[in-house]
Write the structure tokens for this entry.
Amino acid sequence: MSVIALTGAHASGVTVSSLALALSGARPSLLAECDAKGGSIRTGYRMGEWGGEVGLWHLAQADREGKLPEAFEAHLRRLDTNGARLWLPGLTDPMQAAALADTWEPLGLLLQAMDQHAGYDVVVDAGRVVVEQGAVHPSLCPRPLLHRADLVLLVVRTTLTSVAQTRPVAQFLKSELEQRGSGADALRLLLVKEGDVPEHEITRRLEVPVIGSLPWEEKAGRLLTHGTTRQVKAGSMRLFKHARQAAHAAQVDASTRRLRMQLPPPAVASPVVAGVVQRLLAPQQEVKISG
């Protein structure tokens, strides 16, 4: 199991990539939509099924009241029909992001518990990297989630523009993760093959290894950004096949880093957290998660 955070420089396809990985992995997954600029899954992929009554912003208030684990569980929603793939909806207004500055850290501990004690592969949509005065912005980017992640995937399109925009971000993130995270070697590239810049050239320019690539597939991309009322066989789409391969590679890489660094699993901090973990241990059983 692992906690994988995805981020990007500018319009790189982080949310679509996060959804593809969370929906394609071989094991139960949890997608935490933590883009400080606001989430788009509820109005896109989920087609307005949920509004502002659920989601990340409510966790900030619950955290101040000492009730974060209960709120976390209450605001989880399904990404699939059987509940094996869960989703924590994001913000509905970027003005809400400042309220979460002190909540990212305890939320990161909860996500680690979901990974190492409840058996979920956790995918974090961290949105765009925002830098201020030489550091990741404390409220406009969920930096504790990047620091705690087993791997940070920097999403980049295979175009000259995207590579150029990503280069300074890649160098900054390596420094950030080395100083405050689990090390610069936690950073990987996830390519979106929209252009024709070859992988070896991107690796050379950004000096970061590639974990996998996703094809530029209009039909699958539209499904993930706009949703659909039609029956869709996601397994027949190239995007999902490649996403499964990338998810597997990330799992192997994350597990290898954990073993090499001899990182112990985080303790379950309280009986309340333990209760949340216990109820979510087997999503195929009768877990009461709203659709």
